[in-house]
Amino acid sequence: MKLETLQALNASRAARRAAVVVTDLQTGRAEAFVEGDRFPDEWSAVISGALRSGRPALAMIEERSLFINVHLPPPRLVVIGAVHISQALSRFAPVAGFDMTIIDPRTAFATTERFRDVELIAEWPDDVLAGRPLDRYTALAALTHDPKIDDYPIRAALEAGCFYVGALGSRKTHASRTERLQGAGVGQEAIERIKAPIGLDIGAASPVEIAVAILAEIIAALRNRDVDGQGGAR
User: Fold this and answer.
1) Where is the XdhC Rossmann domain (predicted)?
2) Which of 63, 127, 177, 200 is most buried as measured by Cβ atoms within 10 A of its Cβ?
3) Average pLDDT value for residue range 125-152
4) How many CB atoms lie within 10 A of CB 105?
């Protein structure tokens, strides 16, 4: 691998940006494209597929045999609220390959006894996210039912372009949330990205079942996310 290709990959990893390396198997020539770069239109479909799946691919394009190797940042799940659903998610999400963080300023809930094997931060989300910004490869699940805790991270997730933003609560609760977000200047298009009620509609009742529904919805969002902004020449 050429030095400039390695440098591009290291830079994209440090910035939590996606990168692909396209290698012509006949000539051995490799080109690296970092998220936001332009690449040939004829490569768009195969590169977009690799970016969604995270898996390498072989393609024959214009009589050229190409190997597409994709480098994605590890997906993150940030959960707002140290609640029973979060306890179940803390067991499931790491198994599914997600780095997980739980944020809740309520120290009565955010205890190491309840969350032993996951990063737990007992601080206000506003303070935490100021130093640990969200990004396109982060899913955010707001689970406290408390606007004082949930609303700021929801806004931050929408602004950061998180691939998934979900919030616990009934449709009535979400209607009130929508009014608050609109009052804070959040546009309707962004608000419509919020998954609320959170989780796939599988008839989930218990915290464990709700956690399964949420994680399934997050995985679906990850594998079907919009990658149009990640390089296709227009």
Assistant:
1) 77-218
2) 177
3) 96
4) 20
